[in-house]
């Protein structure tokens, strides 16, 4: 499960006044990223076929990902899910969120952003946005995706990246078009969630505005999610999410244009797919679109 923004902010600001001064000087966008290099589980441990994929970015980094083919024969695959994970650890700790999809007939492709897992570099907002697009461009060039639906599934931070990526993909009329976008447990904007979390902690409350201003507002999800239409959007958010408050998901849904669907859930943050009924809701969304 992803370590959320709230915990990262508390960790970032639990030090001395010098820490606050350094953040004021350098900005606090780094609190969105908490990567590690530990391998928690590999697909073969779950009896899944997989291939390692390595992609070179235009700015000289190398990204690592996993391709998980559908359990059905290749000719019978229903489509492909491009998964963007949350802000902590790496794809090996997030694998369980999509490990159930190959059995349901879907290929899955998931990547680590720069600095995560076996990917090189260090993460920042611009870099991870670039990485998410690099992964999608590789995916749509694969023969397994020809004439089949491609869905984007983003959880937490991955949802924020996915909104920005999908809106640009649609507005540029990139091919092939996405068949659907699923956003799970995502904040309504980078600057917006930073200001909310800073304002909720007494030590950082006086700094909520100047520190949040150090984070770009170019990629606020509420400003971009409406531009994904006419591609269908599904927004998932738990009413007891202790990391990203429920109202953040509501704000994204309200800002989205039709066709759209909202799925309120009742699990901890980024634990949606431990509940079979929520899996079925996502499968239903994909089959309809």
Walk me through the structure.
With 289 residues, the protein is an alpha/beta fold. The chain has one domain (39-189, 221-288): Alpha/Beta hydrolase fold, catalytic domain (Rossmann fold), CATH 3.40.50.1820. It has ten helices and ten strands. Strands 2-3-6-4-7-8-9-10 form an eight-stranded mixed beta sheet, with helices on both faces. A two-stranded parallel sheet has the order 1-5. Helix 4 crosses helix 5. The model is unreliable at 1-27 (pLDDT under 50). Residues 76-186 form the Serine aminopeptidase S33 domain. This is Alpha/beta hydrolase. GO terms for molecular function: hydrolase activity. Keywords: Hydrolase.
Poorly predicted regions are: 1-27
Order of SSEs: HHEEEEEHEHEHEHHHEHEH
Overall geometry comes to globular
CATH superfamily: Alpha/Beta hydrolase fold, catalytic domain
Average the pLDDT over all residues and give the rounded result.
87
Largest sheet: 8 strands, mixed
Strand order of the largest sheet: 2-3-6-4-7-8-9-10
Quick structural summary:
The chain is an alpha/beta fold and 289 residues long. Helices cover 33% and strands 18% of the residues.
């Amino acid at each position: 499960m992803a370590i959320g923004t709230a915990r990262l902010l508390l960790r970032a600001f639990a030090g001395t006044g010098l820490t606050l001064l350094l953040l004021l000087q350098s900005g606090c966008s780094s609190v969105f990223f908490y990567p590690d290099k530990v391998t928690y589980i590999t697909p073969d441990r779950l009896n899944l076929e997989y291939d390692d994929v390595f992609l070179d970015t235009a700015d000289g980094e190398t990204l690592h990902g996993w391709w998980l083919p559908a359990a059905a024969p290749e000719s019978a695959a229903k489509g492909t899910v491009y998964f963007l994970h949350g802000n902590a650890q790496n794809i090996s700790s997030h694998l369980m969120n999509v490990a159930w999809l190959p059995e349901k007939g879907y290929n899955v492709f998931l990547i680590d952003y720069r600095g995560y897992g076996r990917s090189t570099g260090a993460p920042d907002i611009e870099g991870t946005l670039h990485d998410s697009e690099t992964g999608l461009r590789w995916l749509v060039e694969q023969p397994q995706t020809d004439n089949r639906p491609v869905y984007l599934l983003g959880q937490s931070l991955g949802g924020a990246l996915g909104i920005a990526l999908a809106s640009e993909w649609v507005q540029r009329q990139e091919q092939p078009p996405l068949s659907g976008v699923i956003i799970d447990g995502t904040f309504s904007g980078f600057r917006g969630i930073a200001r909310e979390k800073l304002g909720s902690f007494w030590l950082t409350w006086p700094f909520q505005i100047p520190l949040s201003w150090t984070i770009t507002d170019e990629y606020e999800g509420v400003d971009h999610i409406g531009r994904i239409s006419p591609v269908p959007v599904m927004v998932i958010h738990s009413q007891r999410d202790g990391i990203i408050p429920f109202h953040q998901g509501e704000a994204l849904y309200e800002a989205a244009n039709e066709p759209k669907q909202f799925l309120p859930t009742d699990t901890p943050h980024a634990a949606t797919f431990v509940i079979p009924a929520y899996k079925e809701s996502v499968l239903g969304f994909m089959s309809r679109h």
